[in-house]
Design a protein that fits this description.
Elements lengths: L2 H21 L21 E2 L19 E9 L2 E9 L9 E7 L6 H7 L2 H8 L2 E5 L14 H5 L4 H15 L2 E11 L1 H12 L5 E5 L14 E7 L31 H11 L6 E5 L2 E7 L5 E7 L13 H5 L11 H10 L6
Parallel strand pairs: 4-5, 4-6, 6-7, 7-8, 8-11
Antiparallel strand pairs: 1-2, 2-3, 3-5, 9-10, 10-11
């Protein structure tokens, strides 16, 4: 498919997504104050449907195996997340936690069924949380994205509360807590690196950093991006969803070129010149930085705005969204990266 045809398909998809997002803005949200970068979050209280817990009583709130749904209260709002606990996972020792953040128009359930993290957890022994964004999107700046941004929702606090809640239920290893996300969810993963010290590493797919981040936490970063992404273009030009951050559904994506952004992270981490290797459509630029940190970029030639290796849903096909690239399995790549990057001091 040539560039003109791809652009046409992207435009049609954008119009369809915009229509759906407009329908999804019916919730009554209350503005919460913005937190400055670096200020620690306060764990949320558990919703009244569950008893309050303390760190000394994790066994009283242990979660069942398989998939389950949970709630926490943040800024007076009841928030939901899904959790997957492998049936054969031993809880006799601390276990890793991966927080998977869906993209705009997605949900925790959609992320759980689409990206293959449950199967990866079964194979490698960790738990996965799938938080739900309000109105199916995340606030990552004052101008993005959708109604959560317009109403000042504190999604960083929500994710911090989710991790804190799970740490009272399960023996979560504090040295091996990770966040990954696609698109708007990838943007939130970047904000978590900028505003918390909770995570050992983040994995971003088709996302970008929005807003200031002068002193991110000393974590490792893997960023995966397609060169044909029309929503968050690789070269940093305005994407198809950009509306300048105005109106009821603000979307202002101005993170700049992906390579420039990765270079800034490497500069902050004092990384040396990266090692670059290409295999088919996949080019990996890996920088091995001081103190055990890595800042890696995987570029997938010709890939659009999608999660490489994922299963495309019927709804995504009907919307004309980019089919996932088969040149790479992003979930496997991200877990391999996480597995070798515990927290660094």
């Amino acid at each position: 498919m040539d560039r003109r045809a791809r652009a046409c398909r992207t435009t049609v998809a954008v119009l369809a997504i915009a229509s759906v997002l407009t329908v999804l803005t019916g919730c009554d949200l209350v503005r919460s104050p913005r937190r400055a970068a670096g200020v620690p979050t306060t764990p949320a209280s558990v919703a009244p449907t569950r008893p309050a817990a303390t760190a000394a009583e994790p066994e009283n709130r242990a979660v069942a195996t398989g998939s389950s749904v949970h709630r926490v209260t943040v800024d007076g709002r009841s928030r939901t997340f899904r959790l997957y606990r492998p049936a054969k996972l031993s809880l006799s020792t601390p276990v890793p936690l991966v927080v998977m953040l869906h993209g705009a128009l997605g949900s925790g359930r959609q992320a759980e069924t689409t990206y293959g993290w449950n199967a990866m957890a079964d194979r490698h022994g960790f738990v996965v949380a799938y938080p739900d964004g309000l109105n199916r999107s995340w606030a990552v700046s004052s101008d993005c994205c959708g109604s959560p941004a317009r109403h000042g929702v504190d999604d960083v606090a929500f994710i911090a509360a989710t991790v804190a809640d799970l740490s009272t239920r399960l023996p979560v290893d504090p040295e091996r807590i990770y966040a990954t996300g696609i698109s708007n969810g990838g943007m939130l993963a970047y904000r978590l690196a900028c505003e918390t010290t909770t995570f050992a590493a983040i994995g971003v797919v088709a996302g970008t950093l929005l807003g200031p981040c002068p002193t991110p936490a000393p974590i490792s970063l893997l960023h995966i991006h397609g060169t044909a992404d029309g929503v968050i273009p690789y070269d940093g030009r305005p994407g198809a969803l950009n509306n300048g951050g105005v109106g009821p559904l603000p979307v202002k994506i101005d993170g700049g070129p992906v390579r420039d952004q990765i270079d800034r992270w490497r500069e902050l981490a004092r990384c040396p010149t990266p090692e670059v290797r290409t295999a088919g459509a996949v080019t990996t630029s890996a920088a091995h930085c001081p103190d055990g940190r890595d800042v890696d970029l995987i570029t997938v030639a010709g890939a659009g705005h999608q999660w490489p290796g994922a299963t495309q849903s019927t709804a995504e096909r009907l919307l004309g969204l980019d089919p996932p690239s088969t040149a790479l399995t992003a979930t496997e790549s991200i877990w391999s990266f996480f597995d070798t990057h515990p927290r660094v001091d």
